[in-house]
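Fig. S4 source data, part A: sequence.
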Amino acid sequence: MTSGDAREATAAERAAGAGFAPAFGGGLLPAVVQDAGSGEVLMLAWMNEEAWRRTLETGEAHFWSRSRRELWHKGATSGHVQRVVAVRLDCDSDAILLMVEQAGGAACHTGHRTCFFRELRGGVVSPCAPKVFDPAAVYGKAASTGDSNQGSKA
Protein backbone atom coordinates (compact mmCIF):
# COMPACT_ATOMS: atom_id res chain seq x y z
CA MET A 1 0.00 0.00 0.00
CA THR A 2 1.38 3.40 -0.94
CA SER A 3 0.84 6.67 0.89
CA GLY A 4 -1.64 7.68 -1.84
CA ASP A 5 -3.97 4.71 -1.12
CA ALA A 6 -7.27 5.80 0.35
CA ARG A 7 -8.12 2.53 2.06
CA GLU A 8 -6.45 1.03 5.06
CA ALA A 9 -4.96 -2.47 4.90
CA THR A 10 -7.20 -5.26 6.18
CA ALA A 11 -6.17 -7.45 9.11
CA ALA A 12 -5.40 -10.30 6.70
CA GLU A 13 -3.25 -8.01 4.55
CA ARG A 14 -1.37 -6.71 7.59
CA ALA A 15 -0.72 -10.28 8.77
CA ALA A 16 0.48 -11.33 5.31
CA GLY A 17 2.70 -8.25 5.15
CA ALA A 18 4.30 -9.40 8.39
CA GLY A 19 4.97 -12.83 6.88
CA PHE A 20 2.08 -14.42 8.82
CA ALA A 21 -0.17 -16.20 6.34
CA PRO A 22 -1.26 -19.81 5.98
CA ALA A 23 -0.04 -21.80 2.98
CA PHE A 24 -3.48 -22.59 1.57
CA GLY A 25 -2.36 -23.34 -1.95
CA GLY A 26 -6.01 -23.08 -2.99
CA GLY A 27 -7.12 -25.76 -0.55
CA LEU A 28 -8.27 -26.30 3.00
CA LEU A 29 -6.17 -26.37 6.15
CA PRO A 30 -7.01 -27.90 9.53
CA ALA A 31 -7.84 -25.39 12.25
CA VAL A 32 -7.59 -26.51 15.85
CA VAL A 33 -9.66 -24.43 18.23
CA GLN A 34 -8.42 -24.14 21.81
CA ASP A 35 -9.88 -22.34 24.83
CA ALA A 36 -7.57 -19.38 25.47
CA GLY A 37 -8.00 -19.57 29.23
CA SER A 38 -7.92 -23.29 30.03
CA GLY A 39 -6.00 -24.64 27.03
CA GLU A 40 -8.75 -27.22 26.44
CA VAL A 41 -9.05 -28.32 22.80
CA LEU A 42 -12.60 -27.48 21.75
CA MET A 43 -12.81 -28.62 18.14
CA LEU A 44 -11.14 -29.21 14.79
CA ALA A 45 -12.54 -27.59 11.66
CA TRP A 46 -11.34 -26.55 8.21
CA MET A 47 -10.41 -23.13 6.88
CA ASN A 48 -9.97 -21.79 3.39
CA GLU A 49 -8.65 -18.34 2.50
CA GLU A 50 -12.08 -16.72 2.82
CA ALA A 51 -12.64 -18.23 6.29
CA TRP A 52 -9.17 -17.00 7.30
CA ARG A 53 -9.92 -13.45 6.10
CA ARG A 54 -13.33 -13.33 7.76
CA THR A 55 -11.89 -14.64 11.02
CA LEU A 56 -9.19 -11.96 11.09
CA GLU A 57 -11.58 -9.19 10.02
CA THR A 58 -14.41 -9.98 12.45
CA GLY A 59 -12.44 -11.39 15.38
CA GLU A 60 -14.82 -14.39 15.43
CA ALA A 61 -14.15 -17.87 14.05
CA HIS A 62 -15.29 -18.71 10.52
CA PHE A 63 -14.74 -22.07 8.84
CA TRP A 64 -15.40 -23.94 5.62
CA SER A 65 -18.02 -26.70 5.81
CA ARG A 66 -16.83 -29.61 3.72
CA SER A 67 -20.26 -31.26 3.76
CA ARG A 68 -22.29 -28.16 2.82
CA ARG A 69 -19.50 -26.62 0.73
CA GLU A 70 -20.00 -23.19 2.21
CA LEU A 71 -18.48 -20.75 4.64
CA TRP A 72 -19.95 -20.78 8.14
CA HIS A 73 -19.67 -18.43 11.08
CA LYS A 74 -19.23 -20.51 14.22
CA GLY A 75 -22.19 -19.85 16.49
CA ALA A 76 -24.39 -18.22 13.82
CA THR A 77 -27.29 -20.50 14.78
CA SER A 78 -26.63 -21.26 18.46
CA GLY A 79 -25.13 -17.95 19.53
CA HIS A 80 -22.10 -19.84 20.83
CA VAL A 81 -19.58 -17.80 18.86
CA GLN A 82 -15.84 -18.09 19.29
CA ARG A 83 -14.10 -14.78 19.93
CA VAL A 84 -10.52 -15.07 18.69
CA VAL A 85 -7.89 -14.04 21.22
CA ALA A 86 -4.82 -15.19 19.26
CA VAL A 87 -3.95 -17.06 16.09
CA ARG A 88 -0.95 -19.33 15.62
CA LEU A 89 0.46 -21.10 12.58
CA ASP A 90 2.62 -24.20 12.71
CA CYS A 91 6.19 -24.22 11.37
CA ASP A 92 5.08 -25.05 7.82
CA SER A 93 2.14 -22.62 7.88
CA ASP A 94 -0.19 -25.48 6.94
CA ALA A 95 -2.09 -25.84 10.22
CA ILE A 96 -3.92 -23.12 12.15
CA LEU A 97 -4.48 -22.81 15.88
CA LEU A 98 -7.21 -20.44 17.06
CA MET A 99 -7.15 -19.52 20.72
CA VAL A 100 -10.66 -18.40 21.59
CA GLU A 101 -13.10 -17.32 24.23
CA GLN A 102 -16.08 -19.63 23.78
CA ALA A 103 -19.43 -17.86 24.21
CA GLY A 104 -22.21 -19.89 25.79
CA GLY A 105 -19.81 -22.47 27.18
CA ALA A 106 -20.24 -25.02 24.36
CA ALA A 107 -18.27 -25.51 21.16
CA CYS A 108 -19.96 -28.69 19.93
CA HIS A 109 -23.24 -28.82 18.02
CA THR A 110 -24.17 -31.82 20.21
CA GLY A 111 -24.37 -29.43 23.15
CA HIS A 112 -21.10 -30.49 24.77
CA ARG A 113 -18.38 -28.14 25.95
CA THR A 114 -15.93 -29.65 23.44
CA CYS A 115 -16.31 -31.79 20.34
CA PHE A 116 -13.88 -34.18 22.05
CA PHE A 117 -16.44 -35.21 24.69
CA ARG A 118 -15.82 -38.98 24.64
CA GLU A 119 -12.67 -40.84 25.59
CA LEU A 120 -11.32 -44.36 25.57
CA ARG A 121 -9.39 -45.01 28.77
CA GLY A 122 -8.43 -48.43 30.07
CA GLY A 123 -10.59 -50.06 27.40
CA VAL A 124 -13.71 -48.18 28.54
CA VAL A 125 -15.47 -45.43 26.57
CA SER A 126 -16.97 -42.70 28.73
CA PRO A 127 -17.97 -39.05 28.52
CA CYS A 128 -15.25 -36.59 29.52
CA ALA A 129 -16.87 -33.19 28.90
CA PRO A 130 -20.16 -31.75 30.15
CA LYS A 131 -23.25 -31.22 28.05
CA VAL A 132 -24.02 -27.50 28.20
CA PHE A 133 -27.18 -27.20 26.10
CA ASP A 134 -29.93 -29.28 24.51
CA PRO A 135 -29.44 -29.37 20.73
CA ALA A 136 -33.15 -30.03 20.12
CA ALA A 137 -34.00 -26.78 21.90
CA VAL A 138 -31.41 -24.79 19.92
CA TYR A 139 -31.64 -26.38 16.46
CA GLY A 140 -35.10 -27.93 16.55
CA LYS A 141 -33.74 -31.46 16.15
CA ALA A 142 -31.37 -33.84 17.89
CA ALA A 143 -27.73 -33.53 16.84
CA SER A 144 -25.81 -36.61 15.77
CA THR A 145 -22.97 -37.54 18.13
CA GLY A 146 -21.13 -39.37 15.36
CA ASP A 147 -20.92 -36.23 13.23
CA SER A 148 -17.40 -35.05 12.46
CA ASN A 149 -18.45 -31.38 12.86
CA GLN A 150 -18.02 -30.82 9.14
CA GLY A 151 -21.51 -29.48 8.73
CA SER A 152 -22.14 -28.01 12.15
CA LYS A 153 -23.31 -24.45 12.55
CA ALA A 154 -23.01 -24.56 16.33
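Fig. S4 source data, part B ends here. The first strand starts at residue 29 and ends at 35.
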